[in-house]
């Protein structure tokens, strides 16, 4: 018979976390005022399933720097710190590299097109090999 505090799903999942991951999970739980780690995991799963716009993976070292800015009180959330960093970074990028931006864009387009051609050639080669 399940106890009153058991989760509705009734399934147990054990997971090993590094100390850093555990600390991040605890910060997440505290930020959301969730009663326990199980609820924090459920909230993370709900967040992961929610539709989003474009996102990019933040490197761990940069994420830690953003977390420190939040911990030090410069920003109230990671999202706020990311938005500010992006705005300042883009402003500085444009100001410092105004002349070179057109060249950077052209180069990026060339790389993208080259990659698309390479992927197309690989697909066509595989198709020929299948015949």
Describe this structure in words.
The protein has 131 residues and is mainly α. The protein has a domain at 78-131. The chain has four helices and no strands. It has helices at residues 19-31, 37-49, 60-71, 78-130. α1 crosses α2 (37-49). The longest helix has 53 residues, at 78-130. The protein is flat. Residues 1-6 have low confidence and may be disordered.
List the helices and strands and how they pair.
Layout: H1 19-31, H2 37-49, H3 60-71, H4 78-130
Helix pairs in contact: 1-2
List keywords for this structure.
about 130 residues, mainly alpha, flat, about 70% helix
In short:
The chain is mostly helical and 131 residues long.
Please estimate the helix content. 55-70%
> In what range is the share of β-strand residues?
under 5%
User: Helix count, per DSSP?
Assistant: 4
Q: What's the pLDDT, averaged over the residues?
A: 85
Give the CA-based shape.
flat
SS content category: mainly alpha
């Amino acid at each position: 018979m399940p106890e009153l505090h058991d989760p509705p799903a009734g399934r147990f999942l054990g997971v090993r976390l590094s100390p850093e991951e555990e600390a991040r999970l605890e910060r997440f739980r505290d930020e959301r005022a969730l009663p326990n780690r199980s609820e924090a995991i459920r909230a993370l799963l709900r967040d992961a399933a929610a539709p989003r716009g474009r996102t990019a993976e933040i490197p761990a070292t940069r994420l830690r720097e953003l977390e420190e800015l939040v911990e030090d009180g410069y920003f109230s959330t990671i999202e706020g710190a990311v938005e500010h960093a992006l705005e300042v970074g883009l402003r500085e990028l444009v100001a410092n590299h105004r002349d070179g931006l057109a060249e950077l864009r052209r180069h990026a387009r060339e790389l993208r097109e080259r990659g698309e051609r390479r992927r197309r050639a690989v697909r066509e080669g595989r198709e020929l090999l299948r015949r």
